[in-house]
Design brief:
By secondary structure, the chain is α+β, with helices and mostly antiparallel strands. Helices cover 24% and strands 43% of the residues. A hairpin with an 8-residue loop joins strand 8 and strand 9.
Length: 187
């Protein structure tokens, strides 16, 4: 057994049962009966999401500007700039889904898209997994289809993104993760 395997065995929680607290097409809330490595037993809330989540960093042809949407989030009662995002519908191709979300939220289509990174958004409580894409060859093709999603779109220079983050105009976790990953590994 390797040291890594030994460490995993020492910190592994044992699940003894699950009770459904709430289930829907959007989110499920469960209460799991778990045993901690030290033998204590607790009830732990778990959120699962039936649909995969994804985001996209949409770039202009020079790759020096990113397309962001301005929107209100009622849960936090905040306004901010975000990258386009959404869920993959059952049976839908993930790439087709993010292309659909980009068009619905921005009015732009993209020519080339590729996955950048996938990550667990809330590992301590949730199965939520995001995939972030980078999209290029953006072309404006139509008005924004879903006005419930954003009030406006704007191209921002990559240098301006850092200012927006510092001024807390980008607060959305998936947007922060996707933009930071792009700047760190793709710019």
């Amino acid at each position: 057994m390797t040291d890594d395997q030994e460490d995993q065995d020492v910190t592994r929680w044992t699940v003894h049962g699950r009770r459904a607290m709430y289930e829907s097409d959007w989110v499920n809330v469960y209460l799991d009966a778990v045993e901690l490595p030290d033998g204590h037993q607790i009830d732990h809330h778990v959120l699962t999401f039936p649909k995969a989540s994804q985001t996209a960093v949409v770039l202009n042809d020079a790759r020096d500007h990113v397309l962001l949407i301005w929107r209100h989030r009622f849960i936090t009662d905040t306004w901010g700039w975000e990258v386009p995002a959404g869920w993959v519908e059952p049976g839908e191709d993930p790439e087709a889904s993010i292309r659909r979300e980009i068009l619905e939220e921005t009015g732009y289509t993209v020519g080339h898209i590729e996955p950048m990174v996938s990550y667990n958004a809330l590992s301590g409580i949730s199965t939520m997994r995001f995939t972030a894409y980078v999209a290029i060859q953006a072309r404006y093709t139509s008005e924004v289809e879903d006005h419930n999603e954003s009030s406006r779109t704007r191209w921002h220079s990559m240098d301006d993104v850092a200012r927006l983050v510092r001024q807390r105009e980008v607060q959305d976790g998936p947007s922060l993760a996707a933009l930071a990953y792009y700047r760190a590994f793709h710019q």
